[in-house]
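Exercise 7. Given the components listed, write out the predicted structure of the assembled complex. Treat all entries as one system.
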Amino acid sequence: MTILTLSKLTKRYAGTTVLSEVSLDIAAGERVALLGHNGAGKSTLMKLVLGLIRADGGRIEVAGHAPGSAVARALTAYLPESAAFHPAITGREQLRYYLRLRGQPVKQADELLEKVGLADAAACRIGTYSKGMRQRVGLAQALIGSPRLMVLDEPTSGLDPVSRREFYALLDELAAKGTAILLSSHALSELEARTDRMVVLARGKQVAQGTLADLRHDAALPLTITITPKAGLEDLIAEVFPGALVLEDRVTFTCAPDEKLAVLERIAAQRDHIEDYDVHAATLDDLYSHISTRAA
Ligand SMILES: Nc1ncnc2c1ncn2[C@@H]1O[C@H](COP(=O)(O)OP(=O)(O)OP(=O)(O)O)[C@@H](O)[C@H]1O
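Answer.
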């Protein structure tokens, strides 16, 4: 079931087009990452989805409802890049306040704080929290009321590596229950395994969309092969693979994705001469810089 539909979405500020005919569907349980340089239009797209600003063209539907309508608001949760709270209020008080606004029982506050790892700090003033802890308060408020759509603007900035992993585990749980997730991030390596699909914006235009496998297939970037030959056989192995470089005790070269099987057969034919080998496909970082350069 489609939770979010964007069709030919266009937004202009003072005559400058900052989003141009962007189309995207997100199904229940799908995790979609929005990628793009600073100023590419990611936050603008999110504000349109939330109904905070109006589009100049195109259509948005949140589970069939207009963005910003009472129903769409009730179905949507949002975590801004830097969540700001009154420093004199405790985490528990803040959550109780949000729960009241959302018409939910205030007794859920402690359970939500526990979920985001803030149980021990529930009675402390937010003014004493670190940036990562404040971000967790923001995440706890976004979890209120089992949202159907979750919109997260650079949610992991300011979180340490362990907190990031915990954060994505929470998103996985939500997605498994059917929440559609749209998040932006500049931390590409963490998105590879944690999102189902990526949408790349460049100066307001959608320049790529698909799974990591789709993006890899379209970009057809070379694979990097690293072979560890048996001691003293480095030069012999390097001669088998044209263009190969010997770096210390390893032999490295690249090959096109459609040559992979033929290269693996040639590696297998050398099995008596090698200890090990690795094949590295393009990372999301590689793909993103390829797509951005192509779009420039
Ligand atoms: N209220 C506004 N008035 C005029 N221009 C705006 C306004 N808000 C955003 N813009 C412009 O729209 C473009 C897209 O901005 P947006 O904040 O959506 O980018 P972004 O991809 O979220 O960037 P970042 O990664 O830096 O957060 C930028 O050129 C920005 O200057």
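Discussion: The first helix runs from residue 42 to 50. The chain has a mean pLDDT of 93.
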